[in-house]
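Re: that chain you flagged

S.,

Sorry for the slow reply, it's been a week of failed gels. I finally had a moment to sit down with the sequence you sent. For the record, here it is as I used it:
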Amino acid sequence: MREWHVFKLAGRAQGLIVPLVLLVIWEAVVRVQWVSAHLLPPPSELVVTLGDLAGDGALWGHIGISTLRVLIGFLIGAGLALLVGAAVGLSRRIEALFDPTFQALRAIPSLAWVPLLLLLLLWLGIDESPKITLIAIGAFFPVYLNFVAGIHNVDRKLVEVGGIYGLSGLRLVTRIFLPAALPNLFTGLRTGLSLAWMFLVAAELIAATRGLGYLLTDGRETGRADLVLVAILVLALLGKLSDSLLVGLEGRWLSWRDTFDNRQV
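Prediction finished late last night. Pasting the structure tokens below so you have them in one place:
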């Protein structure tokens, strides 16, 4: 057991090799003046900027409000996707009615929603509603698509066995369809969460005075490349952390699967 934990930690540590190498190359390229430090501040300068922002509490405020926006928007978008996806996946009539519209809407880029939400500010209010709406839109479609695909890919024999044992309606959904669709669902949740962080930046273009997206745009408008890069790196770290949490839940809830493990090769 101890050897397994050591092997697992070593495997995770390998994932740091590429980022560390890139940081060293980045620092070296700027130090030998192949690239101007004003245009591309080195990592050592970013650490100083990060320390200054963390020291006066500004960074934690931006992280807190952005994380809260992503969490609320993701929960709303994913929750609606589960309800709609279940209805579409289980009913051919509902699928024919709604799925073509959803397929068309999902092709709209995130920034295309921003002008529309700006026009709706008078209705939604100049507060968190437009931002959370945009994040929820980003989270909705990956969860919806993957959940519907998971339901459609459920083995017909499992459904027939459930019918033999008297399962129907909600019991059939919770005992057969949902467990069988969980792998697809987690793929959709992970993709939806990553898109929620991406849509956050677009959302915080909408009359925002706080948040990592605001910090990014503030750095751009003031010509501070270090602020822009710090905001990008913090977004990347938060995205990776939140994805790791979902991966942990996936491993726990889907431990029953007998799937290929590349560690065995």
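What I noticed first: Residues 57 and 170 are 49 Å apart (CA to CA).

Talk soon,
D.
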